[in-house]
Design brief:
CATH topology of the largest domain in chain B: Aldehyde Oxidoreductase, domain 4
Number of domains of chain A: 2
Distance between the termini of chain A: 35 Å
Number of strands of chain B: 29
Largest sheet of chain B: 7 strands, mixed
Order of helices and strands of chain A: EEHEEEHHHH
CATH class of the largest domain in chain A: Alpha Beta
Oligomer: heterodimer
Strand content of chain B: 25-35%
Shape of chain B: globular
Strand order of the largest sheet of chain A: 4-3-5
Bound molecules: FE2/S2 (inorganic) cluster
Structural class of chain A: alpha+beta
Strand order of the largest sheet of chain B: 3-5-1-12-9-10-11
CATH topology of the largest domain in chain A: Ubiquitin-like (UB roll)
Shape of chain A: globular
Helix content of chain B: 25-40%
Number of helices of chain A: 5
Structural class of chain B: alpha+beta
Number of domains of chain B: 3
Amino acid sequence: MPYVRTTVNGQPVEREVEARLLLSDFLRHELDLTGTHVGCEHGVCGACTVLVDDRPVRACLMLAVQANGKPVRTVESLAEPGQPLSRVQAAFKRNHALQCGFCTPGILMSLTAVLEEEGPVSKERAVDALRGHLCRCTGYRNIMTAIDEICAEPKEVGGGAG
Amino acid sequence: MPGNVGRRMPRLEDDRLLRGNGMYLDDIHLSGSLHAHVVRSMHANARIAGIDVEGARRAPGVRLVLTGHDLGDLNGPLPLLGPHPSLLAPRTQRPLAVDRVRYVGEAIVMIVAEDRYLAEDAADLVQIDYEPLPEVVEFDDARRGDRFVHDDIADNVAAVVSQVRGDPEEVIRSAPHTLALSLDIERSCGSPLEGRGVLADWDPRRQKLTVFDSTQSPVAIRQGLSRILDVPLDRLEVSAPDVGGGFGTKIMLFYPEEVLVPYAALRLSRPVKWTEDRWEHFISANQERGQHHEAVVAFDDNGRILAVSTDFDHDTGAYVPYGIAVPAVTGTHLPGQYDIEHYRYSGRVLYTNKPPVSPYRGAGRPQGVFVMERLIGAVAKRLGTEPWRVRRANLIPSSAFPYDTGLELHDRSRAIYDSGSYVEGFDRMLSHVDVEAFRERQRATRAEGRHLGLGMATYVEGTGVGPYEGCAATLNSSGRIVLEVSVPSQGQGHATTFAQIAADVIGCAAEQVHVVTAAGGPTAVGHGTFGSRAAVMSGNAVAAAAHALRAKILAAASVLLECSAEDLETRDGNVFVRGAENARVSLADIASGANPIQYPGTDRPTPWVSREPGSDAPVSLSATEYFRSGQWVFGSGAHGVMVEVDPGTGRVTIDQYVVVHDCGRVINPLVVDGQVVGGLIQGIGGALLERLTFADNGQPTTTSFLNFHLPTVDDLPPLVLDHLETPSPWNPLGIKGTGEAGIIPVAAAIAEAIEDALSPFEVPVTSMPLFPADIRTAIDRTEP
Ligand code: FES
Ligand code: FES
């Protein structure tokens, strides 16, 4: 059987997997990292977004084997248990930027990638990242407020990029 | 501790969800779980000549294959919700179709295998022999007389809903002016981002069936399932985990899978999980909205509306599981905020070969408001006046409350508007819009070849459907208050808002209150989250239970503090003797003091509080109360929208959207604003982006988010959001529901704005949604 050897949230992972296993199913059902959600499996909604090699990727459009050798980060990595929320998470909480919370992990990962880019946080880049996500509950208004707050903060404030 | 209700308090549930620790249905992994996959009809209307599942039974990893025949008596028609005399020929779906399918997506076979991949492999081996029949897709098909959704219903009519107040026919005959419109609202759906899902586990050792269901009403599912599967309630637990959005789609009960999955778990004595994928959601989850109206309005020279009458067709899909709820709500909500003496509606509920219809956020109201407001727009045009003037002239004045509409709601209660400030709300909306300034801008930009338009709409929302909800409030010895309710949250924030209510009554911090949705406790006989009822019904039950618990807490504290309960007050999670700040006891100490047993780790003996002097019985620090109401309460609002339409491309841009909203007393403005804005953007989607389409043979052609477009952040317009608070006199907290409000008038307001923008072309807007291509086509039709 093909296998995948990489790190997920900094932890080494080595497993045999079926070639057809989606990365989203691998993370959720084999590694029990259920914070990554699946809203469409068509690559449209963005709920399944994780960082692969530090770049946002739709985990429902990628096979687990394709992550071989490529570090993966999921929403569970944004704040250690018992530690404060990351900047993006905290801004979401302050501003009620989530309702059912199903779309949220994907959006957090896309915005975290933007925050990790060089230089000051660009609102344009953040909004562009949000464009790739569907949220059926919030109407995006409070997510935009959260983005505004993040962009207004100096970068080192509030627990780092993530 | 007063100060929680009314506070913009960030939600207590968010920390968990933000860390990826939400527990949605598909996140629950029970060891040894099997996975179900449903084989669905590929035809909209067909006889089934044969079902061959032998290949699937032999496929790798398959543990069970179920057809309708295998289910025996269990495969009877699923329950009909809300029986009503107007239902002439109600039909509900069987868990698995046997000899006939009536929509693409109808369940025929369920396969249970070791994993989802294997179950789907096996599905490819199922062979179904269809004999296609002529399909009923459009309303015209239903009336043709040569095609039938149910062979014994020759006219495809499930029900006729109608009511009259006054004498509209006579008034229309003799009125100075009348006009008529044909209006359409097309099919759409709620599309929660999390699909449906069920997980069931029969544990033969505990003799218990545990069901997790991504539903808005676990309590009703539990009560119903107990009967359907003949499992006593004490052996059956049903709970909704975190639910990734509902919007009414998940208040449908029962979907076939909600019966099939628990049944399979019982048969196999192993956990069985089914999670819907997005394609399945588009073909097998319930939908809504489709209606066609022939409406007439009678009015005088001053724009005073004398009578309204509508005859409409309502598309209920292949079955009518929710009875007449949606078309009845359309009829009863259509006049809305307007005082119209003579009114009638008559709605024909027609079967079609499409997924069944049950309420989607708004639940028939958006259609009614669209009709009413289109009529007002037409009246204004005929009289050569501003539509807002016609609206204002017809609003129900504040002096008229309670306002008896004379109409009966589908639960047989009378629609009486409890309170409202319609004129004030409308004027506030007008002042935000500033019509004169807009007209100036409109004129100026017309000269540049640009097309701006202004639209408005008002609505009422009957909320807080009875008959009751309960709450069990308990003080535990950790010093925390636990509230058990029967309404789950699909993102509405109950864990926070109910905590705010209880905290104010008890005198503690909201963070000290924990809200659980009961699976089997004393409140497990309530109803569910729908019809914007949770805050009204459960909110008031929470307040009642908290008051009762507070009385018990004070009684126990009076023993500990050796004073009379009347001298006590509560604050910050402590009970004080009034005027003696040092004489106090914490909630945790009261709870331990009420229990004569010393547990390991208790650091100091607490004095034993007996129920009354001389009695040995422990004091119960738990109270269960119910809030009962037979009357809906009516929220309201006024929307104004300014758009620009590009006649070249048909593209509509919303320049500004104004919402003035009144849901009575607000528990948490942050949450209420979130509900209103979320609903509003969903409404914008419904007006400009979302339309479920079907080919002539009933094949659905919108089966992914690639062609059913939900709004994205680019569809969020500049917003003005304003509130009025007209408390309801009919419940102690003064609350009116708000879950659906935001979506209700949006299509109507945008329709008027588009028509206004395109007035040089004289394009009448008579249907929703409108895509750019529809607008282009309409313009083309008017150009010589
Ligand atoms: S689940 Fe991957 S994009 Fe929707
Ligand atoms: S919060 Fe529910 S989908 Fe975004």
